[in-house]
Write a structure and sequence with these properties.
With 189 residues, the chain is an alpha+beta fold. The protein has three helices and seven strands. The N terminus is likely disordered.
Length: 189
Amino acid sequence: MNRASIAACIVAAALGSTASAQWYWPPTEGVGVAPECPTPSSELVVRAAGDWPDSCPPNTARVSVNGFEVDFDLSTEPPPGFCLSVITAYSIEASFGPLPEGEYTVYTTYFIDGVERLPRQRVASFVVDPACGPCYADCDESGDLDFFDFLCFQNAFAAGEPYADCDQSGDLDFFDFLCFQNEFAAGCP
């Protein structure tokens, strides 16, 4: 975006324009939901980030769920008196859930003092799936499959931890090592 475009957007924002085609709405860095693959027992976090056209970016977030629609409402509270015309980076998040199995759509709306200032926009979607969850082979939960996962599994086996019963036979034995090796070779989704 060139300086003239940025200046035009800042002037429009300063004049109170709430047209739906604002360069900063929906959030310029997007809206995301974590974890990436939630289960019906997962607590979720929705996060928005981006650049705002003045020094009064959203600082309050609220989540409501209606069926398979998640509304992530952003607002600036208390209502700002005066905002400098300077592009300001922001990041805001809110926790919610757990949610039942299904596919969800996330919408975001911007409010000031309870009045909609920027329109509701569809910004993301996600699926709650009971098949999701931690990857068994990532024993140390580092997010990478590596030698340290084998060490972690070996330590769990030596300590007699239930996790080490990979084949769920009720016994810790050589077959658990083979099972872990197969899980490791299969990788993580």
